[in-house]
Amino acid sequence: MTPIAVTLAGSDSGGGAGIQADLKTFSALGVYGASVITALTAQNTKGVTAIHDVPAEFVAAQIDAVFSDLDVSAVKIGMVSQRGVIETIAAGLARWRQSRVVLDPVMIATSGDKLLAPDAVDVLRRVLMPLALVVTPNLPEAAALLDAPVAHTETAMREQGERLLTLGARAVLLKGGHADGAESVDLLIEPTAFTRLAADRIATANTHGTGCTLSSAIAAGLAKGLSLAEAVRAAKTYVTEALAAANRIKIGSGHGPVHHFHAWW
């Protein structure tokens, strides 16, 4: 059976993040990708200039169209900027009995532009996090979800990850890409397990879409039947290789994208 994953996220007109990065990742990893678009952004490698939110009822129509026909094995949730859309997605996941859900709490773009309305943060915490198999915040996003300072040590990262577990997610992958040091360290925190994932930090400015790509790669692994820990390890390797190859392509004049198809061209 062909593995199928669905991304529920915003569109990046520049092609480096959001829905576009998700579908590229699914394809690169041998998974058929479908999509539910939650927002349109006018965006390129230099930043976001406008956001057009998709009405919640149309998001619901997309969800029902996809899940009523396709045998979906995993779901990735990215940019969900408005309260009504978050509630609609939560209802859709429950309606279609989806349990392998990867939630990437996208709040700020690589360029620094805010992508989540302030009044939607609490709804994301209360409504979506309890439906997720794994939540994948970076350090600033974890701090925002907890109303806490940004973690600067692995001990603080683990403490924040454990606090995020209490909000209902079954696992938390706290990403250390914003930290300093020779290694980029991510921590997978589960109620009864802890995994440290480290890779050499890649010196590149082409990091646009890194978080979207990682969460989509995890969903791809889950769709292919990997366990969560296996999917996270495979995703970490894929993103590290995509970052290492990012300078082989020249896209835009700002933060360019990672090289999703580094194994192919």
Outline the structure in words.
This protein is of the alpha/beta class. The protein has helices at 18-28, 56-67, 83-95, 121-128, 139-146, 154-165, 210-223, 228-244; strands at 4-12, 32-44, 47-53, 74-77, 101-103, 134-135, 172-174, 183-190, 193-200. It contains eight helices and nine strands. It has a six-stranded mixed beta sheet. The longest helix is centred in the C-terminal third of the chain and has 17 residues, at 228-244. The model has no long low-confidence stretch (mean pLDDT 93).
A few lines on this structure:
This protein is α/β, with parallel strands linked by helices and 265 residues long.
Alpha-carbon Rg, integer: 17 Å
Taking pLDDT < 50 over at least 5 consecutive residues as the criterion, the unreliable ranges are none
How many domains make up the coordinates?
A: 1
How helix-rich are the residues, as a percent range? 25-40%
Looking at the structure, the CATH topology is UDP-N-acetylmuramoyl-L-alanine:D-glutamate ligase
Largest sheet: 6 strands, mixed
The CATH superfamily is identified as Ribokinase
Mean pLDDT across all amino acids: 93
Number of strands: 9
Strand order within the widest sheet?
A: 3-2-1-4-5-6
What is the correct CATH architecture? 3-Layer(aba) Sandwich
Q: Please, how many helices?
A: 8
In one word, what is the shape?
globular
State which percent range the strand residues make up: 15-25%
CATH class identity: Alpha Beta
Order of helices and strands: EHEEHEHEHEHHEEEHH
The termini sit apart by: 27 Å
Structural class: alpha/beta
